[in-house]
Amino acid sequence: EEEEDEEQEHEDQVLAQAREDLMALRRLHDQEDLFTPRVHHAAQDSAGFLAFGLRGWERLPENRYEPLLRAVYERGPVGVSVTADAWHLYSKGVFDGCAKDAVIDHAVTLIG
After folding, report:
1. DSSP characters over 40-58
2. Stated pTM of the model
3. 11-70, pLDDT tens digit by residue?
4. Rounded CA gap, 76 and 93, in Å?
5. What is the structure's pLDDT at 17?
6. Residue 61 and residue 76: Cα distance in Å, rounded?
7. Alpha carbon 94 to its chain's center
8. 57: β partners
9. I need a labelling partner for 96 at 20 to 30 A (CA). Which of 57, 80, 88, 110 fits?
């Protein structure tokens, strides 16, 4: 039981840190449209992100094969947001068979 409590405490700390990081990101970029596909640069006062090397990121067009393939080829691993409820239907390429209101519930690193 003590081990379960420690595990739950660690999980709570990780979730709290993730929420804090997301709130910081929202505050830093509250005037910027983060949903537009383009390169986004970290603000100079975003010390937490700069401390671990995040200088910027690029949002790619959703469910588009060519921009994703190009990003993996030219820049390396890509973080991908997915909904796992239809993974059993996936066989190759970019899966775009999910509903418009699908809940994103997994983050995946795509490497090539």
Report:
1. EE--TT-HHHHHTT--EEE
2. 0.55
3. 888 888 888 777 766 665 555 566 677 777 777 666 666 677 777 788 898 888 899 999
4. 17
5. 82
6. 17
7. 16
8. 40
9. 57
